[in-house]
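Hypothesis: this fold can be encoded by more than one sequence.
Test: take the structure tokens below, design a sequence, compare later.
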């Protein structure tokens, strides 16, 4: 599948939008499934050129492709088309309006894809460490089953708007000039609903809570997106559903800070521990105990590294990053009489 998009369309690398569209138009005509019934090779070629056009006709995707190639697009969640219906629903009316030939086989109107949905999910750092499966309740908009999405109470019908006679626009005259504006009564729809559906109040859509189980891999970080194909809004007129994007955020942790796969924590030491050295049991993010050896003469702000106790790596390398502990030496602010006299002895001995 890693064919060069420019070669597939037969255009130069600096081709402009109209040259790209023209090239795609002639190739889409040639390989269109209506013209090549049962020809799997033509269908595969139709998919390839459609994918090339999808990328090269979008300046943002084209920029990513020019700089990073196919891998760059994959990294940004663009995975091409799954089948021919996917292509028609994606381009919608493009085939009919711009190319002058039918999109869908059999001359049906193209079915539109439903809208994509976004859900923001905040995870704890512990959840990012282990990964988890979570059931989410996603508010979705679906066609009303009482009125079949029409918005009119069953047994009644939408009527042609009397103000604009169904045109959706009215002409407003001012002297010599007449201007067409959106009809104020039907808001451009050309139809009014005399008895709105009692379930959806005429909207044709109702809210539904979808339960969606999402698998979150170990090591995820803030800003990452998980795409759940087909879990978005259902398409109008029975078209394919859109996708659901779960956008991740990570709550601040009271002991650990994160930098990619590395974790940072503070290790408080008394003046005596720092001076004489000590062994300290540190509780890691997963709740296990790790013994940290503090060498004698440890300075404030020393970084001690605990290998493999960071976050899972997501860059293809196995294993986990490291945990870096940063020593904080605490100077006593109050002293007992004994401590004070011992410290004075220490001072005198050092002279
Ligand atoms: Zn309804
Ligand atoms: Zn009207």
């Amino acid at each position: 599948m890693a064919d060069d998009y420019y070669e597939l369309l037969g255009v130069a690398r600096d081709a402009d939008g109209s040259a790209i569209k023209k090239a795609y138009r002639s190739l889409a005509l040639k390989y269109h499934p209506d013209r090549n019934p049962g020809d799997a090779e033509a269908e595969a070629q139709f998919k390839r050129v459609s994918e090339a056009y999808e990328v090269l006709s979008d300046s943002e995707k084209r920029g990513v492709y020019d700089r990073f190639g196919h891998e760059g697009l994959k990294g940004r969640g663009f995975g091409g088309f799954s089948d021919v219906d996917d292509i028609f629903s994606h381009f919608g009316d493009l085939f009919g309006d711009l190319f002058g030939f039918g999109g869908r086989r059999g001359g049906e109107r193209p079915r539109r894809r439903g809208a994509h949905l976004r859900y923001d999910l905040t995870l704890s750092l512990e959840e990012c460490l282990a990964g988890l499966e979570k059931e989410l309740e996603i508010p979705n908009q679906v066609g009303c089953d009482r009125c079949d999405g029409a918005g009119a109470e069953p047994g009644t019908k939408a009527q042609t708007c009397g103000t604009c006679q169904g045109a959706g626009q009215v002409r407003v005259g001012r002297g010599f000039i007449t201007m067409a504006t959106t009809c104020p009564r039907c808001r451009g729809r050309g139809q009014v609903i005399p008895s709105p559906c009692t379930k959806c109040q005429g909207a044709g859509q109702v809210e539904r809570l979808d339960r969606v189980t999402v698998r979150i891999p170990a090591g995820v970080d803030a800003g990452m997106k998980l795409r759940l194909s087909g879990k978005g809004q259902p398409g109008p007129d029975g078209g394919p559903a859109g996708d659901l994007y779960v956008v991740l955020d990570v709550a601040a942790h009271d002991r650990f800070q994160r930098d990619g796969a590395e974790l940072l924590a503070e290790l408080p030491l008394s003046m005596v521990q720092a001076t004489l050295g000590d062994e300290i049991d540190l509780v890691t993010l997963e709740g296990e105990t790790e013994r940290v050896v503090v060498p004698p003469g440890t300075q404030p702000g020393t970084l001690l590294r605990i290998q493999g106790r960071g976050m899972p790596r997501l860059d293809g390398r196995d294993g986990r990053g490291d945990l870096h502990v940063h020593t904080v030496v605490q100077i006593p602010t109050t002293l007992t009489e004994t401590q004070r006299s011992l410290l004075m002895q220490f001072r005198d001995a050092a002279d």
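The pocket of zinc ion (ligand 2) is lined by residues 161, 163-164, 183, 185-186, 190 (CB under 6 Å). The chain has three domains: 5-107, 117-158+193-250, 256-350.
Hypothesis status: open.
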